[in-house]
Amino acid sequence: MGCQMSKECKMAITNKKIHETIAKVIGEDALPIVEFLKEKKNISEFIIAEKTKLDMQTTRNILYRLNNHNVATYIRKKDRQKGWYISYWTFNKKRIQELINKMKIENLDKLKEQLNKEEENKGAFFICTKACARLDFDTATEFEFKCPECGSLLNQQDNTKTIDNIRQRIKKLESAS
Q1: Structure confidence by residue, pLDDT tens digits, 100-109
Q2: Where in the sequence is the domain holding 81, given as residue range(s)?
C-alpha cells in the first residue's frame, strides 16, 4: 500500500513541495517570509519585516501562523538598551514532511468517508437536470424531487462512475510516496 505515513515515508522536500504545503496550510501570504527564512537561523522579526517589505503587524501575524503549525520556531531575547523583547525566527523544514503526511491522511479519510456514503446510497442520489444540486434520497424527498435551486425535476443518478473515481483517487493517494 505504499508508504505508511511514518519515518519510512521520506521524499525530497523540494521548493515546489514547500510552497504548495505552506500555501495550503498557512496561506500564500506566508510564502515571502518562508522563502526569506528558508536557509537562515534566528533572524529578528524586524529584519524579516524589512527584507520582505511587510509591515510589522502583518509579519508577526504570519510568523505566529507559521509557529502555530510548528513551521517556524522562535526564541525571545530582551533588548538591553530598549528593554523590550525581540523574537528571532527559524524555519523548521522538517515539519513540511509531517504536514504533507497529515494532509494526505486527512484527504484519504475524507475520500474514504465519501466512498462509504456513495456505496451505502448506491442508486439513491438525485441530480438536477441543470446540475444545480445533487441530493440523497431523503433530501430529494423533502424537496418533492424538485431542485431547491431552480425548481427543475430531479433525476435518479447512477453513481457507479463516482464510486470508481473515488476508489482511483484513494488508490493513487495510497501509492504515492
Answers
A1: 999 999 999 9
A2: 15-96
- State the angle between helix axes of 56-68 and 45-52 in degrees (0 to 180), rounded to the nearest 10: 110
Separation of alpha carbons 77 and 86, rounded Å: 5
Together in a domain, 147 and 84: no
For the stretch 119-147, pLDDT in tens is 998 889 999 999 899 999 999 999 999 99
Residue positions counted in the chain: 177
Alpha-carbon distance of 9 to 104, in angstroms, equals 12
For residue 74, what is the domain's CATH number? 1.10.10.10
- Integer Cα distance of 44 and 64 in angstroms: 14
Per DSSP, the residues of 119-148 read HHTTT-EEEETTSS-EEEHHHHHHTTTB-T
Residues 110, 170 within the same domain: yes
Whole-prediction pTM: 0.69
